[in-house]
Batch of 2 targets.
Target 1
Amino acid sequence: MLTKNQKKIVVSLSQKKFRNQHQLFVVEGKKGVDEFLNSEFELSQLFSTSDEFEVEAEKLVLISEKDLKSISNLTTPNTALALFKIPKGKKVDDSKLILALDDVRDPGNLGTIIRLCDWFGIDHLVCSKETVDCFNPKVVQATMGSLTRVSTHYLDLENFLKSSDLPKFGTFMDGASVYSHILPANGILVMGNEANGISTQIEALIDRKISIPRFGNLQNTESLNVATATAILLSEFSRRTIEM
Amino acid sequence: MLTKNQKKIVVSLSQKKFRNQHQLFVVEGKKGVDEFLNSEFELSQLFSTSDEFEVEAEKLVLISEKDLKSISNLTTPNTALALFKIPKGKKVDDSKLILALDDVRDPGNLGTIIRLCDWFGIDHLVCSKETVDCFNPKVVQATMGSLTRVSTHYLDLENFLKSSDLPKFGTFMDGASVYSHILPANGILVMGNEANGISTQIEALIDRKISIPRFGNLQNTESLNVATATAILLSEFSRRTIEM
């Protein structure tokens, strides 16, 4: 049975302030919960309408469908909602390409970017403190479990870039074509905010400005969405590692 | 002033049935409306809270903010909502790469894909009849005006592919790596449904199965989202045209 206090905590976790206070976040749906259970993430509590999950008895709370609905962020039915502990920060490994986000605000974009990191084997994602929280329920849902395989770090991006000797790449409209640019196997690729791109302070720390060439109508085409631009750039960095 | 009948028609256009009946669709916001006004699309009627648009007087209806809000699909404020005529079908030009969609259902994905076509100079997008309507208000909004530059055709995809001599590419998990595959400057690239990929009938018509190599954890990573996969593939086809 779901207690009033449990309900209050779960519902509060849709806000970053309370996620930080409790050091917990929400994962929903059988598939997502299973992926997190089979990962390094530590389960705090599992609310489920069925006993199909193999978890320690004291962490399982069997609840009614009605109760599940009252704490769920989803509109479609599901059988489980789990609280996992926010992991302690790991060290950023700089032996491979690192992706860094300068103020990406849209949960769907961050979710897509984390899935892309997973696909292209990017183990470390560094986010500026203004970037949307990766434990936001919408982001967790959009990552489809990729969050269990990509370490996401919220750091002062300016300090992080200053402290690293790796070559720093950023996308700019007037950058050199990524297709003809020599791309190393390690480095930091910075992607900017949806509306404003990379900020002036961060731009000053970029060593190499690159761009995705535009093949369509040169006057009118809008810029690419940050998630699709990230897809193309990670593909470019990755393909070079097998060409070398 | 907004009449009851005008309001009824505008609101009805969020449904495909009524868009087909009236042969009209909705564009919202100053920037979007301006892009469509400066395109080949024909304005039917413009509802605006200001007279800042240069359109024929009989097509302009000045309305209150309250009335605009009552017919708008947006939650954020804007100054204009326009009805444009659904254009007559053009011939599909097969001298360049054609993108074809087999049952893409999500409006956001279709919007992103139309923006990608615009960026990469793909002039013709062929959609199966089950694919979400490109004049759906969510798609129009997500395209950011790219819909004015990409001709979108709803056809029987099976017949269209059968009738074309162009090489037909499709993405499959077991396809050959797109990075090492020879890609021509013209052809048809087919992308499949979000959940099920390319259907069996369409698969039978594909000449070359390609895939985007996966660099991450081989067991677990989910497939790429159709919009990000399209981004990577259009980038690959385009980069070859400048390598040649």
Note: Chain A has a mean pLDDT of 93.
Target 2
Amino acid sequence: MSAPKPSSRTGSRAAGQPTGSRSPGKSHRRFLLPFQGEALSPPPVWLMRQAGRYLPEYRATRDEAGSFLDLCYSPRHATEVTLQPIRRYGFDAAILFADILVVPDALGQKVTFEAGEGPKLEPIRTAADLARLDPAKTGGKFSLICETVERLRGELPDETALIGFCGAPWTVATYMVQGEGSSDQAEARLWAYRDPQGFQKLIDTLVETSIDYLDRQVKAGADALQIFDTWAGTLPDNEFDKWVVAPTKAIVAALKERHPEVPIIGFPRGAGGAALWYVDETGVDGIGCDTAMPPYMMSEAFEDEDVVVQGNLDPLLLVAGGDALDERVDEILELMEGRRFIFNLGHGIVPQTPPENVARLVHRVRGE
Amino acid sequence: MSAPKPSSRTGSRAAGQPTGSRSPGKSHRRFLLPFQGEALSPPPVWLMRQAGRYLPEYRATRDEAGSFLDLCYSPRHATEVTLQPIRRYGFDAAILFADILVVPDALGQKVTFEAGEGPKLEPIRTAADLARLDPAKTGGKFSLICETVERLRGELPDETALIGFCGAPWTVATYMVQGEGSSDQAEARLWAYRDPQGFQKLIDTLVETSIDYLDRQVKAGADALQIFDTWAGTLPDNEFDKWVVAPTKAIVAALKERHPEVPIIGFPRGAGGAALWYVDETGVDGIGCDTAMPPYMMSEAFEDEDVVVQGNLDPLLLVAGGDALDERVDEILELMEGRRFIFNLGHGIVPQTPPENVARLVHRVRGE
């Protein structure tokens, strides 16, 4: 087995080097300060899927835009839905509204979103399917996304950071190969076992395309980047190394070469203890923690890795609300007191979330 | 947050006490020897869901039995399908053929299995729903299951151990509340947040019923027990303590009081690093490791906990077969050499598994 026990940092970044300092001075965007070495109290706060179906104004804009992908590719509408939660809650960061399946769509795979059914893709299973993907053709669609980034940087309050993102190659590949969401990602995992070289070509295409996509987002005005690896948690250690760690490391290295000042947050959902190894090897500046990440990992283990910790309230507590929500917010704040920390959820906001509970959360985090 | 960093054993069992020795002498069933302190080479081997749809003879027996629950409650048919993989592969242990939803069914909840759709239950969401569950009525259905155990003990080769099992209260509750399988167990988790006392009543009912059910299985002839907690991995640490650790601890304690010689294996799937805490607190004798369990946990961390390790080959490698399968089997054997170890999968056999790959695995493990 190839993944050794995580040890102190020996990986891509030198220890003790605060990252993400865009200028010699401190950023005026609070969200960026933890990456410049500051432990803030209260911590910056934003929430995954903060622009989404739980907001009535989002539903109205989406209805106006047409299909879900139409919304992603309409700079005017995508800008509007990105701004909606900032207006309501004044989060410290906005995240570009788009979808991780923009990348396969831009590469030429057929992607549709049926209402209430999740995404459907024409599955890629063979070398011939793979050969039809064309990184050279992504420019048009990526330009639309980057126009949203530019508009956002113009319209966001100056103190609000803007996060760009992509899906990690492994997670995007699971959808591309399965043709839809799945609980076990069986088709991608089987391909990787049966034909690792062929599967590597798909991953390489995604690495190359993701680098280009994120580079464009930064040039358009993104202050930070997040790489979403939703399905990182089901892989055995050697497969985790090959399909999660190595591609992410390649993306981070390429982005760091071009934009050393832009912090990158990795979110290997479900990775548990392997997240230490992931942080050590990939060189990410921040680690997104899912709901099940043990507290000692968040407060101690990652500290040794010199990485900003982000997370990890259960999105279902935001549905439940009440004292249970307040108590858990307080527990997380107490646990992370004095650490370089960004408050977030452990997974995205779910549609049935009452918007007033989000306000309650933000007030609680800020001690208002 | 309530779960401290796992430390050396301070929990339910004294350190250094080999468990599971039914008699003063060594068992003649190899499967039981690791629980008596022996590290075997080659290790004992059995596979989760070794009786199942990948076997043509299983499909034939199931068609004859009627519905899936009919099969579970027919001692003749359930005995037959339990024996089928033993005849083919000579596994060191057989596992009683049944389903974790036998418990809610016996408690009076309506449970059905639609072909290709998974289980459907009339969901339990209120105190009134809960009040209709009746532990006093479980005897009839549990007797049918235990008749299967008795028949099996009579028909199995004498050297083959027989494993009884139940679903852990948390995992069974997720189905009872959701009414079906789900990727996020949202309904059970929401109930637990909104009304922890009410949800505790459901868990208590399941603890009490599971103790009775497992006690009966042991009295009928089970040599060992496994507690399946398939959905343990999505819970935050404090919820993991309340709904996974505490109920399992109660079940283990009650069974240990009645049958101190019978080893109990816990399988908190997806628990990652929290599995150390789980082992320490619950007092299980064996820990089932899922596919994503990091190797250093299997070979080092659990060693300090004096627990038998079981796992963790990816079931999809058993579909893929070939050199990739052999190489991974060898890696796991090498990793666990000299440890008290039982070879198994990290999750159940999937239906599309070629039976010849299972034979290949068993030969490889045994160095034949």
Note: Chain B has one domain: 33-366.
